[in-house]
């Protein structure tokens, strides 16, 4: 029963918290009420059976718990008179987006926005978020507590903002949804991937695209996540090991999802406002539409990275561009591009992994082994560590 309740929480946390927070006007009250509702579910569902709508049951039960608390609280009695007449509806799309927009208020620092969204909209525990951020659990608990206190003290509401407020919050909302998806797609915690969290990121992006159909970067982000998610079935083998793009069985890819995502991207691009998410989606589309890894249009991939870099001047963009250079121009020019990033990416495991691949191609096995060993030292995701361990083993056997 505990596993079932946890599954409901992960699937509907954002909507449930949003529904209660919008009615109560207070995140802490909503959180406390839902915690009591979850405890009630653990006691009653095992004997009474699971309700047809578990999320609705939890919201209704949480609502009653919140009203009981307000009745007992002298300060809350005035609030009770205002909210008791109208119970919250079942959690829906607006509730989830309202929670994300509240978590992404510009007054909150970016780490707090991401952590709070993972907690409130993604349903992750404090311990899981701490693992994702590589910080101690007490540190993350304090960060979440401060963020919730800021929401309360600054009177930040839980309604989707007015259209004239989108500009201030939308970049943070897009970034947070992207990070939610990435944390699920390749977790920084103990598990290799969190599929339910990746699905949550895709669903949030789709909901945002439905809310803001004329925002090209929203469409670009939704298309990007859909394109990545369309090949989820081929990304790991039956042992949970990463399968690299060039080795994936493309028959397992969801071709209908790819077609829909490409159409969404074309509609976003037609609005004539280029952005980094559209460029990333364009790169993902080129990979998704190629008949094979070798037959990918690497020159176009490289050109899109050239467009992306001014929009997102990150050394990681240049590292990915170098991978395209390997196939579009040659491994030696690609290695030169990678080596030029050494001062900026020496602590990044994928920089060393890219060097290992290129040095192997250029028949420099000793240097390739050294780079692969360093990549293994720096990798934290278990699936990536397993992949690098295999590479190190192969290179050692070649000596």
List keywords for this structure.
mainly alpha; 399 residues
In short:
Helices cover 71% and strands 0% of the residues.
Report on this model:
This protein is mainly α and 399 residues long. It is 71% helix and 0% strand. It is built from 20 helices and no strands. Helix 11 (216-229) packs antiparallel against helix 12. The chain starts with a helix and ends with a helix.
Radius of gyration computed on alpha carbons: 23 Å
Low-confidence runs of at least 5 consecutive residues = none
How would you spell out the order of helices and strands?
HHHHHHHHHHHHHHHHHHHH
Largest sheet: none
Number of strands: 0
Strand content: under 5%
Q: Kindly report the average pLDDT value.
A: 85
Count up the helices: 20
Shape: globular
Helix fraction, binned, reads: over 70%
Structural class: mainly alpha
Distance between the termini: 54 Å
